[in-house]
Amino acid sequence: MADQPCGFLVLDKPAGLTSHACVGRVRRAYGLRRVGHGGTLDPAVTGVLPIALGPATRLLPYLEGDKTYRGVVQLGVRTVSDDLEGEVLSRAAVPALTAADLEAALAAFRGPIQQVPPQVSAVHVDGQRAYARVRQGEQLQLAARPVTVQRLELLGWDAAAGSLELLVRCSAGTYIRALARDLGEALGCGSALAGLRRTEALGFSLEQAVPLERLEQAPLPPLLDPLAALAHLPRRQLDETEQAGWRCGRALAAAAPLEPGQELAAEQPVAVLAPDGNLAGMARANGTGLLQPKLVFNATG
């Protein structure tokens, strides 16, 4: 892992670029082929886009899935894509609403909910992306999926403009466009997402983000230590006698990485550290006191 760059770069993605295009810019800037992103952002959406470089790409499945957004919802309009980028389907008068009315409507969208993804989305339908089928003229009936909205706060309400600002913290797979659409349906006038900025994703925040323009300047932004993205997981540090066995793929004793009296649940991911404190790989608890290697950096044999 020390032979090549390994870590995370958090971009503050600008509007107008796809997440894939941002990955291409990072790949060229750092001269690496192994680059991937965590959590696609629509081209119009700005904010936190975590990028994994080198071996850190293999850590993406272990990162926290929750994300936080600030968004503006425009009432009185329905579109094919559930945001203002899409073709307008209908317009309606916005009823006289107070902040209390909005709070009452928002209550139904907090906690575990069932959400139908937008028609224009990357959801697979019979082996094809939903947005591709919509572009071919199809009208899709997508199935609702379980998602969780941990926080949903009304930050502002402009009654004259019929627009409101929301803060949303949600699980992976939640569509803020669909939330905007469904809120409009609940209020009886329709609505669409007018703007969106992601402020947190995969354990990273805007405070750690750098603008895309920094990739054109020297020196390049330093990469964040992979361990910074794994702070939510228990850790197990190897001693000198265990390191060779770990690199050969041998299971480890769990060594009680949690508080006394607690046990690791089966399939719990654990970050494994080398004796020098650097990340040596990832393991999963097997429920019987052992950690099975799942990802070994600098493996031998």
List the helices and strands and how they pair.
Elements: E1 7-13, H1 19-30, E2 35-37, E3 46-53, E4 67-75, E5 77-79, E6 88-91, H2 99-106, E7 111-115, E8 124-125, E9 128-129, H3 130-135, E10 145-158, E11 163-170, H4 176-187, E12 191-201, E13 204-205, E14 210-211, E15 235-237, H5 243-247, E16 252-253, E17 269-273, E18 279-285, E19 290-296
Parallel strand pairs: 1-14, 3-12, 15-17
Antiparallel strand pairs: 1-3, 2-3, 4-11, 4-12, 5-6, 7-10, 8-9, 10-11, 12-13, 16-19, 17-18, 18-19
Task: Explain what you see.
This protein has 301 residues and is of the alpha+beta class. The chain is 14% helix and 35% strand. It contains 5 helices and 19 strands. The strands form 4 sheets. Strands 1, 2, 3, 4, 7, 10, 11, 12, 13 and 14 form a 10-stranded mixed beta sheet that branches. Strands 15-17-18-19-16 form a 5-stranded mixed beta sheet, with no helix packed on it. It has a two-stranded antiparallel ribbon with strand order 5-6. The longest helix is centred in the first third of the chain and has 12 residues. The mean pLDDT is 90.
Give the overall silhouette: elongated
User: Got a strand count?
Assistant: 19
The overall pLDDT, averaged over residues, is 90
Which residue ranges are poorly predicted, with pLDDT under 50 across at least 5 consecutive positions?
none
Alpha carbon gap, first and last residue? 16 Å
- The H-and-E topology, N to C, reads as EHEEEEEHEEEHEEHEEEEHEEEE
In angstroms, what is the radius of gyration?
22 Å
Approximate strand percentage:
25-35%
What does the main sheet amount to? 10 strands, mixed
Structure class: alpha+beta
Helix content: 10-25%
Number of helices: 5
